[in-house]
Amino acid sequence: MTTATTFVGSSVKRVEDPEFITGSGTYLDDIKLPGMAHMAILHSPHAHARIRGIDTSKAQQHPGVLAVFTGKDTAGINPLPCAWQAGGVENHVNTPHVLASDEVRYVGDAVAVVVAEDPYTARDALELIEVDYEPLPAVVDPEKATQEGAPQLHENAPNNVCMRWTAGNQEATDRAFEQAEVVVKQRLVNQRLIPTAMETRGAIGSYNPGTGEFTIWMTSQAPHVMKLLLAAFVLNVPENKIRCISPDVGGGFGSKIFCYADMALVAFASRQLGRPVKYVEDRTENYQWTTHGRDHVTYAEIAGTRDGRITGLRVRTYANLGAYLSTIAPGIPTTLYGRMVPGVYKIPATFVEVLGVYTDTAMVDAYRGAGRPEAAYLIERMVDLFAREVGMDPAEVRRRNFVPPNEFPHDNGVGMLPYDSGEYEKALNRALELSGYPEFRREQEEARRQGRLLGVGLSSYVEVCGVAPSAWIGLNGQGWGAGLWESANVRVHLTGKAVVTTGTSPHGQGHATTFAQLVADELGVPMEDVIVEHGDTQGTPFGFGTYGSRSLAVGGSAILRSTAKIREKARKLAAHMLEASEEDVVWENGRFTVRGSPESARTIPEIALAAATGYSLPEGMEPYLDETSYYDPPNCTFPFGTHVCMVEVDRDTGETRLVRYVAVDDVGNVINPMIVDGQLHGGIVQGVAQAMWEQGVYTEDGQLVTGSLMDYALPKASMLPNFELDRTVTPTNVNAMGAKGAGEAGTIAATPAVVNAVMDALAPLGIRHLDMPLAPEKVWHAIQERSASQKEER
Amino acid sequence: MATRETSKVPVNLDINGEQYDVLVEPRRTLLDCLREDLGLTGTKRVCDVGNCGACTVIADGRTGYSCLMLAVESEGLKITTIEGLAGEDGLHPVQQAFIQEDALQCGFCTPGQVLSVVSLLERNSDPSDEEIRLAVSGNLCRCGAYPKIFRAARTAAQIMSSK
Ligand code: FES
Ligand code: FES
Question: Which among A83, A470, A468 has a CA at the least distance from the CA of A259?
Answer without folding.
Answer: A83
